[in-house]
Amino acid sequence: xxxxxxxxxxxxxxxxxxxxxxxxxxxxxxxxxxxxxxxxxxxxxxxxxxxxxxxxxxxxxxxxxxxxxxxxxxxxxxxxxxxxxxxxxxxxxxxxxxxxxxxxxxxxxxxxxxxxxxxxxxxxxxxxxxxxxxxxxxxxxxxxxxxxxxxxxxxxxxxxxxxxxxxxxxxxxxxxxxxxxxxxxxxxxxxxxxxxxxxxxxxxxxxxxxxxxxxxxxxxxxxxxxxxxxxxxxxxxxxxxxxxxxxxxxxxxxxxxxxxxxxxx
Length: 265
What we know:
Layout: E1 3-14, E2 17-28, E3 33-36, H1 43-50, E4 58-63, E5 66-67, H2 73-77, E6 80-84, H3 91-94, H4 99-105, H5 119-131, H6 147-159, E7 165-169, H7 177-191, E8 196-201, E9 213-218, E10 221-227, H8 228-231, H9 234-241, E11 245-250, E12 253-258
Parallel strand pairs: 3-8, 3-9, 6-7, 7-8
Antiparallel strand pairs: 1-2, 1-4, 4-5, 9-10, 11-12
Membrane topology: Peripheral membrane protein
Organism: Aeribacillus alveayuensis
Pfam families: ABC_tran
């Protein structure tokens, strides 16, 4: 089975503070992962290591068969799509761009287009619009879009380079219920296109049926990892979120309720 991500004994320290500790984790072909944990649990730092923007203090990392320290990271990043609510900081730059141009810019990993665009690029952008069910946005300017539409366009941009790995860092942040479900439906379509997804969220109910595996983080350590049916237990989630939680499943999606208002000690 092909390895997508492999971390061995990975730790990260910042100014003598432990951010990640002894992370042993691998993501394999045909697996779709969600990372869950409270703020400060190490989720973003883990993503920064996967994308090569942060180097671990110790341990070995390989992504898509590339061992860190012996690989060209800018070239590797071209194989990784990334969508995050943090990309909203580019709104001022993107605001007057058309939807298609923003999607096409993903081929060049740039904000804006500074290279030659081919007819094949335009054709690919249209295919992505169809995949994400946003054909009606063709020709629209970014500044006129709703928050949910903007997030879908950025998702399309991440797909333009045919990534082998798509990282979604809280992509539904700030979206209303309907828009969130529409975005989750788009993610379902992407997974069905044989793309590997690594999805960070705070919300258990966003774990769609296509997600196969879960990584639970607390204080920079792994609480549990593995197939979602085995990992998403009352005990594991209560420990991760420091609340007495109960898991129930509906339409192949997990939901949680709080058993009492007293945090666990």
